[in-house]
Model the fold of this input.
Amino acid sequence: MSNSAFSRSLVAAYAAAAIACGGAAGTDSTVAVDETSTFGLVQSKVLANNCTNCHTSGSSFATESGLVLDPAVAYKNLVSVASHDATAQADGMLRVTPGNADRSLLYQKLILWDPNHPRNYGAPMPLGGESLSSGQIQFVKAWINAGAPQTGQVADAGLLQNLSKPVYSTFTPLAVPLNGYQVKVGPFDVAPRFERELFVRRDLRNPAPIYVSRFETKMRPNSHHLLLYTFTPNIPSVVMPAPDVIRDIRRPDGSMDFIAMLPMGYHTFVAGSMTPTGGYQFPQGIALELPANTTFDLNSHYVNTTGGSLTGEVFANLHTVDKSTVSKIAHTLFFNNESFTLPPKQITTVTKTFTMASTTTILMLTSHMHKHGQSFVVKIAGGPRNGEVVYQTTDWADPAIKIFDQPLVLQAGQGLTSVVTYNNTTSSAISFGLTSEDEMNIIYGYYY
Done:
């Protein structure tokens, strides 16, 4: 698996795993649709019913993902537009490649409901729902293969009358690794029209330190993400959760359970994925060391927009190697800025530089901020690449994870600068703190 397959956004508000980030913003969602054309039917019978509830101009989903599918702009945002999905880019795929549905990410996202799909293009769409009908999928495919024109009739509209669902392979659990450990959550129910996000502590019970060369994940459909954390050493005993007990952060009425969220203030990121299958392979000879008796806090998030219950289930494998095969031990990067104050009713940008004491090779970066955070940017500080942006995200709840196919090497005296923008809409000043009403400013990553 390419590291690029893991280098994509933990997309915003359950939609950023969509067709790809970027594209023009919409300005008018009320433009009349010409249903005499094939694309007009694609817009009204496929996109309007399944996509524009999220990807509409002005919505937080469109702002975060950058993809607007309103009638005024859908065509120019889709056809012959490059995808920002790393795997799709590697495959030479566009959002819509005229004449070739197989090389069009729009079509691929509609058939990713097949758990045996050979490529990892993120989550199937529409996320939180269910597969489109066979007729809708075939109609989109026929339009693309006919050249994806904006006008004219090039596909049989009768295809849309086929309301049957495609028959895909059944979900198969992730096999336990021959050398290593597996942690999982579920199966569990996800109530109709509900987002279920939960944590559960799993104790690895490893009697000695282990060396992880690869993380591998697998999830049932409609999972937004799976994240693995460890706890910082200073977590109070009264906050440390009991093992193997599911902690839902949303109550049945949708309100947040802040008590259940308290351990989040003592998390250290270890691994994660936002796609049905995912993972990360450390470069040859490099492994992440985990101490004896490692404890994980697994975070699973499912979205259900249907009228029936869904089943959630997530797996994570830790593939381990003998220490004798490890030439370099990877560590978890943790750069924390606690010295900032956000004035009330004001947008504030906080900048801090973290300097390396010795040559440091960075393999991965991600970030952590709370709900007032609007963007988190990381730049190189010093050296020939001074000021270069190497990481950015606009999603405080599910930040991007950036994997470097070519590791980022920083010499002593160089560093990373975090540039974090917050919007304090409250009437009180906000500073660093552990609750969701406070804020955070943390860079996580892997390095050696």
